[in-house]
Amino acid sequence: GLQPGGEQGAGAMNDPASPPMWLTYINVDYVTASTERAAKLGAKVLAGKTEVKGMGWFTVIDDPTGARLALWEPAKK
Fold this sequence. Notes:
By secondary structure, the protein is mainly beta. Helix content is 13%, strand content 35%.
């Protein structure tokens, strides 16, 4: 990850199976509840709750307009 000032500020990954794109992560208090609410409001869940060891959890959704984003719940310290 890219760490300006010593804190995680961005990440870069190379996935040959995906086209080049930006993926915005939105901080939420509870990723499971937020993902369920998004789905009830018309979002399509593309990736279920996934753990990033020691850092937190994320899901990936397409909102009802087709915009892709990730929901991020940082680990409680």
